[in-house]
Description:
Elements lengths: L8 E13 L11 E16 L3 E6 L4 E6 L12 H11 L7 E8 L9 H16 L8 H12 L10 H8 L2 E5 L5 E5 L6 E5 L6 H22 L13 H4 L5 H24 L6 H17 L6 H12 L4 E4 L7 E5 L4 H10 L3 E5 L6 E3 L3
Parallel strand pairs: 3-5
Antiparallel strand pairs: 1-2, 1-12, 2-5, 3-4, 6-7, 8-10, 8-11, 9-10
Helix pairs in contact: 1-2, 1-3, 2-3, 2-4, 3-4, 5-7, 7-8, 9-10
Amino acid sequence: MENNTPQRFLRVSTPGRVCLFGEHQDYLDLPVIPCAISRRITIVGERRPEPWVHLALPDIQAKLSFSLAAVLPYQEERDYFRSAVNVLRRAGFTFSAGIDGVVRGDIPINSGTSSSTALVVSWVNFLAQMSDQAQLLPPETCARYAHAAEVLEFNEPGGMMDHYSTACGGVTFLRFHPAVQIERLQPSLQTFVLGDSLEPKDTKGILARVKNGVLEIVRRLVARDPAFSLHTVALANLDRDMGALNAEQRALLRGAVRNRDITLEALALLQQPRFDHRQLGELLNECQTVLRENLKISTPKIDRMIEAALRAGAYGGKINGSGGGGCMFVYAPENPEAVARAIESVGGKAYIVAVDIGTRTEPAV
Length: 365
């Protein structure tokens, strides 16, 4: 590991993200198309001589302090600040000095826009540069460490989409099978409007229901036919394979396969030098139908927010994140302000956003 001069002052920020296509696909090793958005988590801090971390978190009226002198036992269910230190230590990083810092953000919390992942990616990026090794991590490496700190350390059910999306930024096409492949897309996307339903969501419960449900279906089908694969099965052939499944299982399987196909259709569209923006909206609407009818992760309020946005001129939209509450978004190249007002007229909180870059080090001011 390269040794550089440790940073004294540092400012790091990381974007949130929306999942354009492929919701609930990454943990099945199916492809996804996420997009980083222009709302971010920022950590500003400086080195201190004693090996202690002192962080202020004014957005949630909290403070956190812990020693860096030894391996850190976790004090809460999702103790990401300590877990990132432990993950980096196992990777060879050392911390002879401490940190005084402030964490702020404008990403809606617990709403499906990856606020927690943006926090962990920012913290991993910050820690690596503040370590004795003072290493600026490549985005992909930062994503892997952040995934370990957020997911693997706590046996969470999520995949790696959020970590690669927020670390790398922009619009990306992510394949996970047979190995991780990242394709950076350059579509001329215009304005989105993000709408927070202000409904609490059970991320772990929904992930476990959908993920475990589909994996159990696949296990049963592979036991009958070892050649069965979610990567290759055609939607038209599912009736032949689903004889032993109940209605709920059939809906889940159809949803996973159609979701996969919509994602690949969207990839072909976004790879075009000049693409049909209204066709993008139509694919978003079709994806929302799958998420609502097959995976059953939308809510009546989010449905109303999407309908209001479409009436106000949005081209298309869908629920974002694991579902069951949280955020939706719409693609609104025209009159995004009117679309935002329509979302708020039915009880949501709206944010006009654009595609943004990934985790970055900024001048400390």
